[in-house]
Amino acid sequence: MDTTDTVTTLADAILDARRTGRRIPSSAVTDAEPSVAEAYAIQARVLAGIGPAGGFKAGRTSPDDHPSVAPIPQSMIRRNGATFTANELGACGIELEVGFLIDRPLPSADSSDFEKRLRDCVRPCPALEVVDSRFETFTKTPPGLKLADNQLGAGAVIGEPVDDWRPEDLCEPSVTLAFDGKTIVEGPRPVPGGSAFGTLAGFIQAAALHKYTIRPGQIVITGSLSGMDFIEPGTRVEGSIAGLGTVTLTFAPG
Fold first, then answer.
1. What's the whole-model pTM score?
2. pLDDT surpasses 70 at 3
3. In a domain? residue 15
């Protein structure tokens, strides 16, 4: 299968899975492993079919990593206290993360004082990422397919952004995550890659390389502080990050 066929075939399969709610069977992707370039081309084709991006998820495991980039549809980014339903999601994985609201147009990623200027364009907030997949065996999805499928991102719920913050406080914040009042995670948790703001800065530069334009009003989430846990319909989730506040969501039955 050449590059054009790979991009077209996988993008169409992902779009069909999104429309129908039927995951792509493992047998259909046994030999499919898109390159990084193909995965981003698939992302772009899928995004064109599902509407504009309301935000992005960024991921890295060390400060030297080139962050991954994955769009989140605008329709699946919701405000504090929002509900997702089992009709919308085949599964509901939860991750507590530091998010950033883009308040104003961003500086050029290659400017000499980029991070200093970026600091004045964003505000952090607590965020709950909702994880789902368009693939049948998504817990074993190869990296290329996972990237093509927006890094398994489905949506996010965003708490209120804060004005008073320091980047150094967003490296290992104290967090709490509870399901139906039962604490699942509690205590200081390191941000993947070492710094939420550092991940944001790297993400902005990576996004430009992949031809994504980051606009005011969009949200960027920066990696899980809690691991990933799947919840059942009817579960209420509450997450807190020290200095940023609390964010909640409910996963409702269909």
1. 0.95
2. no
3. no
